Amino acid sequence: EVQLVESGGGLVQAGGSLRLSCTASEFPFGVAEIGWFRQVPGKEREGVSCISSSDGSSYYADSVKGRFTISRGNAKNTVYLQMNNLKPEDTAVYYCALDGRLGYCSSTYFYLLPNYLYRGQGTQVTVSS
User: Fold this and answer.
1) Which of 61, 62, 84, 82 is nearest to 71 (CA)?
2) pLDDT by residue (tens digit) across 60-87?
3) Is the pLDDT of residue 27 over 80?
4) CA atoms within 13 A on the CB side of 17
5) Ramachandran class of 122: left when φ > 0, alpha when ψ lies in -120 to 50, beta otherwise
């Protein structure tokens, strides 16, 4: 069973920055798509960003483009989400998600990000105005 552990959430003022980290216990078959989605109570999950295992391409929701950056750590099983110029509407629980089905991290299948096979316990991000 793949385990995902997130860290780095917290409370920040609007315009501030946070860096989320996620470490996966393993990658199915050595490769996997990995990314982040977020959820506000009472609302649907929203895909935030993912990074492709095949070529390292990254994809973002329109709401975070230009402000958030996803990257891999030196250890392949670690991924980061650098969040800059945070806005109150970014307030949510952020989940790291992983799926062994290659190709899911793409412009075509980005909408599947909130339904990846594995997800972490989530980390709260709160942005005050």
Assistant:
1) 82
2) 999 999 999 999 987 778 999 999 999 9
3) no
4) 8
5) left
